[in-house]
From TrEMBL:
Miscellaneous note of the record: In the reaction, the free carboxyl group of octanoic acid is attached via an amide linkage to the epsilon-amino group of a specific lysine residue of lipoyl domains of lipoate-dependent enzymes.
Gene: lipB
E.C. numbers: 2.3.1.181
Similarity section: Belongs to the LipB family.
Function: Catalyzes the transfer of endogenously produced octanoic acid from octanoyl-acyl-carrier-protein onto the lipoyl domains of lipoate-dependent enzymes. Lipoyl-ACP can also act as a substrate although octanoyl-ACP is likely to be the physiological substrate.
Principal subcellular localization: cytoplasm
The protein, known as: Octanoyltransferase
Site residues, Lowers pKa of active site Cys: 142
A molecular function (GO) term: transferase activity
Entries under PROSITE patterns matching the protein: BPL_LPL_CATALYTIC (PS51733), LIPB (PS01313)
Keyword Protein biosynthesis among record annotations: no
């Protein structure tokens, strides 16, 4: 299923292996970079997988031999899997390319999505992603992660938002290389089940925020 809003086409890709989604990203990136198609966002779930960005340290990785796929995005290691909505925007950034501004727009989109479900989330200085602030339940905890790459002025990789995933997967790694904060989900924070199917149309509606 595809929908187009403000010139941005969203593709619901279902559940894909990470490698298959990575191949599709590269195919779309080539088309967008060549001017053969417009900005496109893949929205999907992955089968359970750990992926490591370029800044991942050896001690961030699982100690139990769990396989990890090394990728060319920024950032460190994270987990993708069932109950987590992943978005891969393949969009052309305006000249001059401002990657930080694009990350901030992505964060704002995810903050707005959380707000629609009744969760107050925001930014943490010096850390990308979207966070639930420290409160009586514990320290600041990440509900959505961002890791991107820009090639030929067009973005790759993207964001993930934890809906109702099993947070135990994050216990095997140092998620995003951050040891002094936790990981959470919409379901865990709101005390009610919020599924990928619930979040998908809200993210689709908010995607134009990504465009400058």
């Amino acid at each position: 299923m595809t929908t187009t809003t403000s010139g941005l086409t969203a593709v619901r890709a279902g559940v894909l292996d990470y490698e298959a989604a990575w191949e599709e990203q590269r195919r779309l990136h080539e088309s967008v970079a060549a001017g053969e198609r417009g900005d496109t966002v893949l929205l999907l779930e992955h089968h359970s997988v750990y992926t490591a960005g370029k800044r991942t340290e050896p001690w961030d990785r699982p100690m139990d031999g769990t396989p990890v796929i090394d990728v060319d995005r920024g950032g460190k290691i994270t987990w993708h899997g069932p109950g987590q909505l992943v978005g891969y925007p393949i969009v052309r950034l305006p000249d001059p390319v401002d990657v930080v501004a694009y990350v901030r727009r992505t964060e704002q989109m995810l903050i707005d999505v959380c707000a629609e479900f009744g969760l107050t989330a925001g930014r943490v200085e010096g850390r990308s992603g979207v966070w639930v602030p420290e409160d009586d339940r514990g320290p600041a905890r990440k509900v959505a992660a961002i890791g991107i790459r820009v090639a030929r002025g067009v973005t790759l990789h993207g964001f993930s938002i934890n809906c109702d995933c099993d947070l135990a997967y994050f216990d095997r790694i140092v998620p995003c290389g951050i040891r002094d904060a936790g990981v959470t989900s919409l379901t865990a924070e709101l005390g009610r089940r919020v599924t990928v199917a619930d979040v998908l149309p809200v993210v689709e509606r908010r995607l134009p925020t990504l465009l400058a």
